[in-house]
Design a protein that fits this description.
Shape: elongated
Number of strands: 16
Order of helices and strands: HHHHHHEEEEEHEHEEEEHHHEHEEEEEH
Radius of gyration: 39 Å
Length: about 425
């Protein structure tokens, strides 16, 4: 090999070796640098973890405690009220526990994260506020039901209170007294309805008896006849006894309402839809001038009251008025059985308390509400009216001024109603 060729060979090998050695050095240096980066990253993570709090702040712990207490208060209030079926109570308990777990999970995630995350404060405050509001509402409803159920205080209706109203058919006397204001005022009963209820078949028979029905008043008139409306002067129990004797039934319960309660309940419900058999115009003496259409009408409280009070504009007088009362009651029952009642329940309870009373026990009323919420079933409502001869005057036990216009009962009408009542109770 010539000298020049040897020199080229040596130079080329020197260049190659020089390139390789730096590569090895770079590999060693890069390994050292990556190790240093890893150490630095581990240090940063450890430093940040030290900076993060080990447990929720005092405020967050207080909010969780308040939410838990509010949930317990709500569940206890619902249990005291006692109108929710067991499946709804179980669902409520699960929901309250899940909401509490969600808030605690949010707090843990906020602790572990270096980024700003929600710790569930807003949710905890909202849930607590809703629980406390609903608790207050439940206790208020319970107090209203206690105020309406005056029969338990008297101690006179022990046998009636022993009835299982969700299993056995029963009769309820619905008395409408012609006064405004205090429900405890003794007055003539202008509305005399009997609701025959079968909770198993979900059937209701509404029976209207004319206020002028000429009947004996047990325990008062000594066999002499009088207008049915006059029985109310001697008390609600006398009116019940009179109707029990007329229809040969046992009426364990009553509901008494006055004009104030009818007007306020309808207004709270946002009005009521009523089917009228006839078209007519009410007079001022009924409380308001209302153009009633044949068929469906939507009434305010004042209009509904005028609808059931009017009789002079009706060819059949008191008989047709009784049918109108049934129509209004049917409309109210349908409204209260709809989801609409959940929206207006608070106002309705306020209007009923003090303007209505019943001898049904608080426990029995709650049982009926619980049954309806459990099944959400519709009710088959039938109406019937007692009729008679209204053409003449008769002397009445409670009025000494002379004969009065009365309605002499039709025996066939009374027997037909008895049969219908028996059929519903089967």
């Amino acid at each position: 090999m010539e000298y020049r060729d040897q020199l080229k060979y040596i130079k080329s090998h020197q260049t190659t070796g020089g390139e390789r050695r730096p590569e090895r050095n770079r590999g060693r240096n890069s390994g050292k640098r990556s190790g240093k980066k890893r150490d630095k990253r581990s240090y940063e993570e450890e430093r940040v973890s030290r900076e993060l709090p080990a447990k929720p702040s005092f405020l967050n712990r207080v909010l969780v405690f308040v939410q838990a207490v509010s949930a317990v208060v709500l569940f206890g209030s619902m249990a005291i009220l006692g109108i929710l079926p067991m499946k709804y109570m179980a669902g409520l308990l699960v929901l309250l526990v899940l909401l509490l777990l969600v808030v605690k999970r949010k707090q843990k995630r906020a602790l572990r994260s270096r980024k700003k995350r929600s710790s569930g404060k807003g949710l905890a405050i909202s849930v607590s506020a809703i629980c406390l509001f609903l608790s207050f509402y439940c206790l208020k409803v319970n107090g209203a039901l206690d105020k309406i159920a005056i029969g338990e205080e008297s101690g006179k209706y022990g046998e009636a209170h022993a009835r299982n109203v969700t299993e056995e058919p029963f009769h309820v006397y619905i008395s409408g007294i012609d006064v405004y204001g205090d429900i405890k005022k003794e007055s003539r009963s202008d509305v005399n309805l009997i609701a025959t209820v079968n909770p198993k078949t979900h059937k209701i028979l509404l029976t209207t008896t004319p206020r002028d029905y000429y009947v004996p008043i047990p325990g008062v008139s000594d066999g002499q006849r009088d207008k049915l409306t006059h029985a109310g002067i001697y008390g609600i129990d006398t009116s019940i006894a009179t109707l029990e004797e007329l229809y040969d039934i046992d009426i364990p319960f009553y509901v008494r309402v006055n004009f104030t309660s009818v007007e306020e309940i309808v207004d709270v419900m946002g009005g009521v839809d009523v089917e009228s058999e006839l078209a007519f115009t009410t007079g001022e003496e009924a409380g308001a001038i209302v153009e009633v259409k044949q068929g469906k009408n939507h009434f305010t409280g004042k209009e509904a009251l005028a609808f059931v009070r009017e009789r002079k504009a009706l060819a059949e007088g008191d008989n047709q008025r009784g049918k109108n009362q049934q129509a209004l009651l049917t409309g109210l029952i349908r409204s209260t059985m709809s989801p609409k009642i959940l929206i207006h329940a608070n106002g309705m309870i306020n209007s009923v308390a003090g303007n209505a009373d019943t001898n049904m026990s608080e426990k029995q009323m709650k049982a009926l509400i619980r049954m309806q919420l459990d099944t959400l079933a519709g009710w088959d409502i039938e109406s019937v009216s007692a009729v008679g001869d209204s053409s003449g005057k008769k002397r009445c036990y409670s009025y000494k001024g002379g004969p009065l216009y009365v309605t002499v009962p039709s025996e066939s009408s009374v027997e037909e109603i008895k049969e219908k009542m028996r059929n519903v109770c089967q």
